[in-house]
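From the shared-data thread, chain only:
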Amino acid sequence: MKIHKLTQALMLAGIASVTSYSYAADEMVNSADVNVEEKKKLAIEVITVSAQKRLETQQEVALTVNTFDAKSLSKAGAVDLTDIEKMTAGVTLDGESGHAANISIRGIGSNSISGLDPAVAVFIDGVVQNNVGSAFSSLLDIARVEVLRGPQGTLYGKNAPAGAINIITNSPDSIDFSGNLEVTASSWDTQEYKGTINVPLVEDVLAARVSGLYSKSDGYIYNEFLDKDANARERSAARLKLLYTPLDNLSATLNVNFSQSEVGNPLQLLGDNIYQYKSFENDQGLAEDDNEAISLEVDWELDSYEFTLISAYQEYDLTGPRDNDFSPAKVGEGGSILTIDQALVSSSHELRITSFDSDEFEFMAGLFYSNQELKGGSLFDNGAFNQNITGTDTTESFGIFTNNTYFIDEDWSLAFGLRYSDDRKSGTSKQIDNIVGEVDGRDSDHFDAFSGSLKLRYMPSTDRTYYVSLDRAYRAGGFNVVAPQHYKDAGFDKYDSETSNAIEVGSKILFWDDRFQLNTSIYYQTFDDYQSNSFLTEQAVAFAPFFVIGAPAGNIRVNGSDATATGAEIEFTALLSEQLTVSGSMAYNRIEVGDFDDIPTTFADAGYSTAGPVITDPRVLPGAGGNTSIVPVTSKSGEVLKGNPQFSANLFVEYKDVLANTNLDWFVRATAKYNGERDREILGSYVTSDLFAGITSESGKWNITAWAKNITDEQYVVYGNDADSSGLGVDVGFPSAPRSYGVTVGYSF
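Structure, as tokens:
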């Protein structure tokens, strides 16, 4: 059942209520009672987070968490979730586009386009996003973004061995009428319009908040063969939130979200043309995604406890063709087309009870249930061979968890949590091609595991926190539903569950009269049956000057025997004066992968043959010439995990002051990001820098910012795979955006 009609109806209802509401213009202000505010002490702002599903200050939480509020996101020029990477080291967010998102924390991640369980859990307003790409469309009316590093299996469930990202949007205000508008114009005819309006419908009882966004861009890659923009995009999004507070201790929030996007395929052959920003496909392709979601959160305070219920329903659709040979060659003339079609429908429910703050013991317990159905398909056609694979992957998940803190004395506390996860998966598939005809497949399995945490914290004062934590996480096994049947027959039909154990030691210190903040952490994490995204490829044929794939590549998941992750992180913020602020972070993350012992290396046992020799080493892709191989995307056995930098760093500098002889504030901000080598030849190290300058009114109601991004015009590959790991026998990826300029104008009321 589609919910777009319900979405539209609720949006219209919210807008109607906003426009029909008559805001009282005769609000009286008694200026005589207004005292001049004393000058505030220069100190780092106290940040409140909900990382442990209760409100705490960031400095007292016994884990590494980065928090970015609306102000800090604006200062960094953040447009979508990928910009978070510029603001903190050790976090990588990239992909072919927003819907094909890859999130890695501490070097561990997985691509979302496959529909497989990710390594980083993403939540929007407490609702788990089963397809993390749905969170990438835009940062619309955001209160804050929390990035939690390390295993989060106790509170966030099965898909958080690397960490979790919490996106919290602004709640309606039942007291004040307010709103804001923001317009951005920049390079490549890029335009973005964002706006929010908040209306108290019944004072202290009912409020509505409506937000909307529209953006378009021609992109920076041009298809010379088709004479059109190659990576143009168009996005729109809307959100309606209704807050109902009938009692002082009871509230209900209805949250309705809609987003859609159309994005041209930016993947290119990596060659002489890549930094000329040219492509030559005869079918550029256009990926379209549509996301609709509705959720209801009820919070009820009773005596010494708070009860929270969050129920949600989501629909996510993705369609799009891709020129699989990256050349002007047509289908049947050496060219090939790959079309992806996915539809994800899910529902989730979480009920938890949380005790109020106590000096002795804090308690939390909860139940979680979700049901997810992923329908996916891939259609490959090169003229001589066509293959249509469709499948359905259904997952029913149940979890029960508790997380508690015992305060040993004024300085010491011990937090301990436990979660039991039960996942029941089933899959069906159908393959139709002009060689094997029609083949049906069906499978089901049951996975369960315990995860948990133990955190010892020493907090001798409000400005010093030291901690050590032990954490265990779990990722359920599953099925490679849309893999070709002969790969399934050869043993690639399913993969096992993954478990991981981690130890982390950290400190959070404020000194210099609360003007300097220094946070550090070191960690060690081991993985059993490490899950790796891999490609299957066969019969790669060279056609100079282009490479043409003779048979389709398949994206699957396999298990390595083990993996080990080690790393260290440093973050600092310094208020050098009332005008000058400097902050930065550094991260070292190293992941070594063990043997992929359980991966089949030949198809002979399954009764299949190939045009060329079968490669017995699954970690090495041969060149063109009619070979069959299995290629883990991540790394070769015993090597460092590929695709993510071992060392990364970022720096933020801001200077602000009052413009002479005016009441206007002016500012200059600069950001720099360094990513080291990413262990693939095509993914080298790079440094990017952005610069912002602007003015803000004394009241803060309006602002104008001029900016330049990638001011040094650094050239690098954002995302890609070399011939050994692309599954295509050639280097593919998409280039970084060249230098760009823009202006953003904002107004609040």
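Residues 4-20 form the longest helix (17 residues).
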